Amino acid sequence: xxxxxxxxxxxxxxxxxxxxxxxxxxxxxxxxxxxxxxxxxxxxxxxxxxxxxxxxxxxxxxxxxxxxxxxxxxxxxxxxxxxxxxxxxxxxxxxxxxxxxxxxxxxxxxxxxxxxxxxxxxxxxxxxxxxxxxxxxxxxxxxxxxxxxxxxxxxxxxxxxxxxxxxxxxxxxxxxxxxxxxxxxxxxxxxxxxxxxxxxxxxxxxxxxxxxxxxxxxxxxxxxxxxxxxxxxxxxxxxxxxxxxxxxxxxxxxxxxxxxxxxxxxxxxxxxxxxxxxxxxxxxxxxxxxxxxxxxxxxxxxxxxxxxxx
Length: 310
Ligand code: HEC
Ligand code: HEC
Hints:
Elements: H1 2-22, E1 29-31, E2 34-36, H2 38-51, H3 53-56, H4 97-106, H5 120-131, H6 157-171, H7 184-195, H8 236-245, H9 260-274, H10 280-290
Antiparallel strand pairs: 1-2
Helix pairs in contact: 2-5, 4-5, 6-7, 6-9, 8-9
Bound molecules: heme C (2 copies).
């Protein structure tokens, strides 16, 4: 009898829990400045549990049963700062629904976050549900979308690539974190021409990405474009957006101080590197860079014998 009672009690709790789950939301909520009905939030929760739970976890903290050993780790949607990487808004701001939809539909290349073939309505509901998980969405609206203007290098892409290469290695120094793709002599020359100083030493490790801290609990690789896939792909407008907006929660800042002309040049240059990926050309380039003779900086005043004492 006691056993039966315990069983009935267990059944009752289970029922209560499951109906409780279905009707989790009873009131509408204002999220990112928009009112969302309880029905949409309940639908979003159900679809999240069906499709996203395995990685993003039951509570949305990124610790789902399939998440173990994943690098990058699945996004934790419960973080008070609500970090997102590729929101299409200046790094650090909350993303808008349009970009989140794009990420869910297209996935993130080279990561376990695959493209999802779900009904638009379900994606919309899941996005709204995700917003209930971090308190930040109740206090703040999404940022303004960073959009690519007209490409000033259209029809003249080769010149854009050359300009982007200079910006990347000298003026903007993307190669502070990402690898360099020019010989040490070229790096010396472009630095002297654009920044006006002589490099005295050039390390061999400029050809390797330099691991950087992030807000995601582990260090991140500033990718080698000839080797790692670009997560948001190489479609030029999206690539422009990713570069200009920066990557939230990572060392990669927004580059909003640059002109559209420079940002487009960088886009063309990065795309030209990404297009080499998985081709023999990428290997040939890496081999050539890594088998250079040791760099000997030219003596600054060698020709001026009075300045040289010994
Ligand atoms: C197989 C594991 C897996 C599943 C299933 C999965 N994701 Fe992800 N998701 C990831 C990983 C890993 C990342 C982190 C990628 C990174 O940081 O580069 C991620 C990141 C994200 C991001 C953050 C993008 C950004 O810009 O920061 C969103 C949004 C997202 N997932 C939504 C979803 C939704 C919605 C579903 C269900 C429809 C889902 N994910 C299912 C693994 C998964
Ligand atoms: C302070 C370090 C740092 C600098 C400087 C930097 N990046 Fe990054 N970048 C990163 C990191 C870290 C990542 C990897 C983020 C991730 O996906 O987790 C990254 C990723 C990227 C990606 C891949 C985005 C994707 O969708 O996967 C592109 C493209 C990129 N950077 C372009 C640039 C360009 C162009 C510059 C110069 C204007 C630059 N970066 C400067 C740190 C940096």
